[in-house]
Amino acid sequence: MVRQRDDREPGPDFVVIGYACRDLVDGRHTLGGGVVYAGLTAHRLGQRVGVVTSVGPDLDLKKALPGIEVVARRSSASTIFRNVYTDGARQQFLYSQAEPIVAEDVPPSWLEASIVLLCPLADEVPYGIGRLFRRALVGASVQGWLRAWDGSGRVRAIPWREGTGALVGVHVVVAGEDDLAAEPRGMRALMEPQEASPHPDPLPGGEEIIGVLTQGERGATVFWSGQARRFPAYSAVEVDPTGAGDAFAAAFLLELKRSGDLARAADFANCVASFVVERPGIEGVPTLAEVQRRLGRTWRRVER
Predict the structure, then answer these.
(1) Mean pLDDT by 10 residues, the chain (304 residues)
(2) Half-sphere exposure for 42 (CA within 13 Å, toward CB)
(3) Please, what's the b/e burial string for 83-94 (b: 16 or more CB within 10 A of its CB; e: otherwise)?
(4) pLDDT computed for residue 247 by the predictor
(5) Tell me: the pLDDT tens digits for 19-48?
(6) Which residues have CB under 8 Å from 298's CB, separation 6+?
(7) What are 72's strand-pairing partners?
(8) Residue 253 phi, psi dihedral angles, 5° rounding
(9) Residue 254 CA, distance from chain mean position
(10) Which architecture does CATH list for 14-290?
(11) pTM above threshold 0.85
(12) Residue 142: what pLDDT?
């Protein structure tokens, strides 16, 4: 592990699980992965954040993610993706992959978190791990469960693999349009009934999974209780879209937990995501002050 911790210490409010990785873009490596973007987003919005990941010796996450507690499975290599953008479309290549994460990597005290976001990149997050967090609002940003790769590492979209139990214990599922390119049923495929996922706080739609489709400059569509509602994006000049969906997912969960209002959650998440695309890499993850100025109102952190 990156560091030893005393499990008697209070755990984080917001737990993120998945690979941190190195993204290769235009010949240079940058820090990437859903846990990085989502974790930094939650941290800069005032949460105590814990990241569960798996990395090699080449990634120093303690230095890269100051103020965030990291528990990492040791691996001989880190996960490396090469991202190639052509006319706004992304082609990915998986160059190397760290060891998969296991449920035992989560410290016991972290199971009391208020919010959990599963961020698989390459099928590394255990299916059904959401059920371990009995007090949490659990979300899943599912891109890593909707992709496969060939011998050259070229990544392609695949249909949703039903029957895996991946979404057991999950209340909110977030996917981008590109993630669902090979799934003919679209977002509805991810909202099929699974094992009941009760939550102590009432959510719109009860125990039904809430689906969120992120659509870039067109905003996002939220699916619940047989309804679908589009929420427009905030105006932004796109420089680098990497990580915007993961920042959106973190912000959506934070506002849904705080207010219980899907419309407010989608608007808040669109606002946060609009910053991420405006600067390269993690430079775009906004501060709370920046978000409040663009949002036009005060936003308070989620209290445990």
Answers:
(1) 52 96 81 94 95 93 91 94 75 92 96 96 95 93 95 93 88 94 92 64 69 93 92 88 92 94 94 92 90 80 54
(2) 32
(3) beeeeeeeebbb
(4) 96
(5) 999 888 777 788 999 999 999 999 999 999
(6) 292
(7) 53
(8) -65, -40
(9) 12
(10) 3-Layer(aba) Sandwich (3.40)
(11) yes
(12) 95
Token output for 46: 């005032």
How do beta strands 220-224 and 115-118 pair? unpaired
Query: 3-state secondary structure string, the chain?
Result: CCCCCCCCCCCCCEEEECCCEEEEECCEEEEECHHHHHHHHHHHCCCCEEEEEEECCCCCHHHHCCCCEEEEEECCCCEEEEEEEECCEEEEEEEECCCCCCHHHCCHHHHHCCEEEECCCCCCCCCCHHHHCCCCEEEEEHHHHCEEECCCCEEEECCCCCCCCCCCCCCEEEEECCCCCCCCCHHHHHHCCCCCCCCCCCCCCCCCCEEEEECHHHCEEEEECCEEEEECCCCCCCCCCCCHHHHHHHHHHHHHHHHCCHHHHHHHHHHHHHHHCCCCHHHHCCCHHHHHHHHCCCCCCCCC
Residue with tokens 């599922």: 173
User: For residue 149, what are its two tokens?
Assistant: 């790769």
Which residue pairs from 134-139 have beta carbons closer than 8 angstroms and sit at least 24 positions apart in sequence? 135/200, 136/15, 137/171, 137/172, 137/199, 137/201, 137/203, 137/253, 137/256, 137/257, 138/169, 138/170, 138/171, 138/172, 138/197, 139/115, 139/170, 139/171, 139/172, 139/173, 139/174, 139/249, 139/252, 139/253
- Domain assignments of the chain as residue spans, ordered by start: 14-290
The label of the residue with tokens 């371990």 reads 132
- Residue pointed to by tokens 């909110």: 172
Residue 229: what residue type? Answer: R
Beta bridge partners, 227, equal 224
Q: Scanning the structure block, which residue is given the tokens 């941190």?
A: 20
Separation CA 7–CA 189 (nearest Å): 38
Cα end-to-end distance, the chain, whole Å:
26
